Amino acid sequence: MQELIHLQTDRLILDRPTEKDLDDFVVYMNSCEDFSKNLFNIPFPYKRENAENWLEMCNKGIESGESFRFAIRENEIGKLIGIIGLHLTKEHHKAELGYWLGKDFWGKGYLTETLKAVFQFGFKDLQLNKIYATHFLHNPASGRVMQKAGMEFEGLLKQEYFHHGKFLDVNRYAVLKKDFESIS
Ligand SMILES: CC(C)(COP(=O)(O)OP(=O)(O)OC[C@H]1O[C@@H](n2cnc3c(N)ncnc32)[C@H](O)[C@@H]1OP(=O)(O)O)[C@@H](O)C(=O)NCCC(=O)NCCS
Hints:
Oligomer: single chain
Bound molecules: coenzyme A
CATH topology: Aminopeptidase
Number of strands: 8
CATH architecture: 3-Layer(aba) Sandwich
């Protein structure tokens, strides 16, 4: 399965995160509190040790086939600019998406480009039937990314998560294999 961890888009390469990415990872997570507010398991401040634990989890997920996390890199530079992950529920042939980009790379449409490549990977290589994602209501940019990538709004899940001491609502979006095949 490891050989599958390499995707290419017009501007980006998606491949396996490595130890060499961890210094950049830590800098991005400490650049602002948005990562901690919008994602799970991201303390603020973020320590090197947190990133090392994350990489271990990432490697275990790939080896077991339960989750696939890609380093997002600009084509020519190769430096880590973000992460996108697919977390599988195998019995239902579905996966949940999680993602982030370093702040300097927001607003360039990179995430929308990334999502389309990951859908292709999920539906063709992993033979998934459904890919879904949620975002907190305080993070509408993420919802906009899901819309731009062709995901369909499925609903508002009330008080779905207990995050930073509060029960928070999320919006959920999804794309089905049959719909992706008809638009790709
Ligand atoms: C979410 C995230 C990946 C978006 O990255 P990005 O590079 O800004 O994404 P894009 O440029 O492709 O698109 C963002 C869209 O949201 C819109 N947007 C930005 N801020 C917004 C806001 N406050 N309200 C509504 N829309 C907003 C932008 O205008 C753009 O839409 P447009 O192209 O129609 O103008 C990035 O902000 C990030 O990594 N945030 C921190 C981690 C995170 O939130 N991850 C997602 C958890 S669900």
